[in-house]
Amino acid sequence: MRATTGEKVFGVFNITFLFGLSLAALYPLIFVLFASFSDPGQLVQTRGLLLFPKGFTFDAYRMVFMNPSIGTAYLNTLFYVIAGTALNIFLSSMAAYGLSRRDVLWKNPIMFMITFTMFFEGGLIPTFLLINELGLLDTRMAIIIPTAISAFNLIIMRTAFQAVPVELEESARLDGASDFRICWSVVFPLSMPVIAVMLLFYGVSHWNSWFSAMIYLQDRALFPLQLILREILIVNDTSSMMTDISSGDQMPIGETIKYATIIVATLPILCAYPFLQKYFVKGVMIGAVKG
């Protein structure tokens, strides 16, 4: 069936519009990438669009990786992401499985209380006092334990677990399977799309987290990468990376250091998206719609 002239025109317009929209979304990242590889002196003189690095150099990245705070913060962030996400998935899965079973006593009042916390919470000061009383202040656990379960993610996982046919559970019970066996051998494998989405949600949340660290941590040896990035970008603190540079060159190189730090902090989480993208839409739809 041949396309009409109107359909061809619409197709060209649609492709052009989407290409322009994609380019507008990607250009800020491309600008930061090119600027991070640019010569500082040439970059500050550039006006308008940056379509390629100006005077290609790795000086900014060399300064970033020479800074001991970046390396320590990177390791801290990896610990928070791995340990925190593992704890998130384990506790959320256990809670979602229990609340998704039909014969669980008082599951509706429990779900109401969990949902209630999404709209009303104690606030920053009571939470800080609680963390202090528990002895978690200025420890790694202050970043991981308070965010162990997200009510929103728990609801998504619970709805996904409810979609698993009850006949599979009954068949497993006839074979002598316990609830833990049913959860990990039947429900969990069948819910891998939503588990992958939860890995992405929790992982990105831990990777981007900086506010909790700013409130609960005082020891710089425990700071995550995003808190160091905040100091560089907002507080404009790049002095620790420029000790071997003359004062006249500090301002230009400071700008490229900011861009290089953004790339270093963003690249790992961007690399994780392609591996989880195929599960994303399916996982969210399974957890969001109850048939």
TrEMBL record:
Topology of the protein relative to the lipid bilayer: Multi-pass membrane protein
UniProt keyword list: Cell membrane, Membrane, Transmembrane, Transmembrane helix, Transport
GO BP of this protein: transmembrane transport
Major localization class: membrane
GO CC list: plasma membrane
Domain of life, source organism: Bacteria
Record-annotated ABC transmembrane type-1 domain positions: 74-274
Membrane-spanning segments: 12-37, 78-99, 111-131, 143-161, 182-204, 257-276
InterPro entries attached to this UniProt entry: MetI-like, MetI-like_sf
Cell compartment(s), UniProt: Cell membrane
Family: Belongs to the binding-protein-dependent transport system permease family.
The protein, known as: Sugar ABC transporter permease
Organism annotation: Paenibacillus agaridevorans
